[in-house]
């Protein structure tokens, strides 16, 4: 789905250079008459990890459809004051959501109060705003919810006809089987995504109306990004997992218990048999050892420590690997077969430009280590073997080709293959038993109970794309687009929303993809590589306190910090495709008297220059002339 164009990558890129900006000239601050607060506490039930993440990412600022600013000096006035319901907080009461809003068109917008109601408000060019109708979400029994109504968050609105719009809402799924651990952690949290239809031409009513649920999906997280593609008549949802209908079962996952992890005997092999004291069972270690993470595979080959570096040849390609080691003939009976792989097909694709190898002689040992670091093309995909044909060696074949090599589950034990090979050769010389030499016990390096799978195991930026038609149907091309990828940046919130673009991790780079325009709903979405932000993934990896990361077309990427520091890091694109350097800048936005950053957006001046809008707890900030 996201295939980079090699001609747009920049292997000559060296670094970002600091370009100083005048803080006083680039930033204008305006105090708010009413100080805002993001404190949102209701009930005493714990929040799930996904809900905490969603609240951190929540953007409290909504940009109107008039994308041109006549002046940089803001004026503040109240559009409409929503009624605040009186609710008693109990242990089991659902947590309220942050209020959210989305414009339908120039004159109408939807506002969710965070308690479970949504208001359709008409905002004329002149005169006061008025409420067209208010709506509540009533959950039918078919959705197996323990709550008849829940607070929800408004993500996106698409106008499907002249007087009708479809709004995308998300809410926490409260089921009768939901459980909380003894440490207060919510387990197995699920989230509902609702597509609801709103009739803007309906007559005003004194009481709240029920929202018309057109379709429903369920997933493991709150959507990170939602976009509406009008020509395709479909919504795009980005989340950590695909969003599925409740009648579509998710793929079953199974984690074996420690006592279930055991070696599988081969034909004619007895794992229970013990070698007698008179018979030596000499087991040759496998030709290599390997381990993997979510985005890389590491392979270690033991070589004689006197192997010169110029005798090693390694070639990476997207689907194959070549490893050739030349060594002078020797009469040593204990010499081991050297790696000889010519265009060997890998189990899955890799990124050749981000893969590399190292040679560690280890002079104090008889063997050194040739280590290959392969960057996975499809992050999050778990490899069963290193090579596609591993484990297919015919019975009785004693060659090293296509031998099955189990994964070393404990990365700290990856390099034990060198010690295993030294013990093996020593046993041949001394006539000792060399059996029982393993490549790893599979024991986690962290103590049991100290890992949080939701935080430590999953990559928070790994997302999947789910397409849903406005009528709830699944597009014919949707099933082939569920491969996970690592998301680095989403478009800057602005209105009208531009053609969707995403910045996806590719090695250490950030690759900008633009969604192709469609002429009919049957046109499958195609993502075209249009630009590259070199080393963006690398520099963003050090920014652990970022709240928002957005890009302005192919000009720049802005990473906003939360908390008291409140900096924004600006990474500009290179002037030319193959320029070795690019500019970066740092500005102070939040923190101090202005308080924490709550939301960001973008508008343009009358001449088309972008201006960045920032909403803090006590200030309205305009950043101009920064791009």
TrEMBL record:
Residues 283-387 form the CS domain. Keywords: Cytoplasm, Nucleus. The keyword Nucleus applies. Its main location: cytoplasm. It is found in: Cytoplasm; Nucleus. SUPFAM superfamilies: HSP20-like chaperones (SSF49764). It comes from the Eukaryota. PROSITE patterns: CS (PS51203). Transmembrane segments: none annotated. The keyword Nucleotidyltransferase does not apply. It holds the Pfam family CS. This is NudC domain-containing protein 1. It comes from Somion occarium.
